[in-house]
Amino acid sequence: MIKIGIITASDRASKGIYEDISGKAIIETLKDYLVSEFEPVYRVIADEQVEIEKAMIELCDDEGCSLVVTTGGTGPALRDVTPEATENVCQKMMPGFGELMRQVSLQYVPTAILSRQTAGIRNNSLIINLPGKPKSIRECLDAVFPAVPYCIDLIEGPYLECDESVIKVFRPKSK
Question: What is the domain count for the chain?
């Protein structure tokens, strides 16, 4: 079974002050995209860098998630530390993901330049940081997901098959 990790970094959601709708939005979007069956491995944690790093390592190394998608903690506020956690646990950073997400978000809001979304590779796992609002999550995933299955192929992860009527992924033609 393909496992995909979802991490919501939110002090209030982790304390039950409000329901986590962002992590659920990621799961619903992935269900729309993927034909491949997958098991979501879902965590709601506080905006604490050590806790975020621990969750990322657990999902990648122990749970065997080939993709880990985070939401929250990507802004300029002092408590926003998800990109720092991602950089600490990854061997390779993939800055193109964040560049494209900001470019897409700028079409909707001028404050997208404040976002620090990024992505990176930890062993055989791709970690992608998304913003916290469900609408922005979908816009950003629509932009970057066409490259995700091929990236996972390149890091020797499982083959992700998508519904081409929903999202058109890119894989180079065989030689």
Answer: 1
Is residue 118 a contact partner of residue 93, using CB atoms and an 8 Å limit? Answer: yes
Q: Three-state SS for 62?
A: helix
CATH value at residue 31? 3.40.980.10
Q: How far is CA 162 from CA 32, 80, 145, 149, 171, in A?
A: 9, 32, 10, 9, 12
% helix / strand / coil in the chain, to the nearest 5?
45, 20, 35
| Token duo for residue 33 | 């995209």
Q: What range defines the domain where residue 137 resides?
A: 2-154
User: What token pair was written down for 87?
Assistant: 């950089």
Q: What is the pLDDT of residues 55-111, one digit of tens each?
A: 999 999 999 999 999 999 999 999 999 999 999 999 999 999 999 999 999 999 999
* Angle, vertex CA 42, rays to CA 40 and CA 46, nearest 5: 160
- Rounded Cα–Cα distance for residues 82 and 49 (Å): 7
Question: How far apart (Å, rounded) are the C-alpha atoms in residues 166 and 84?
Answer: 32
Does an H or E element contain 162, and which? Answer: none
Give a yes or no: residue 174 inside a domain: no
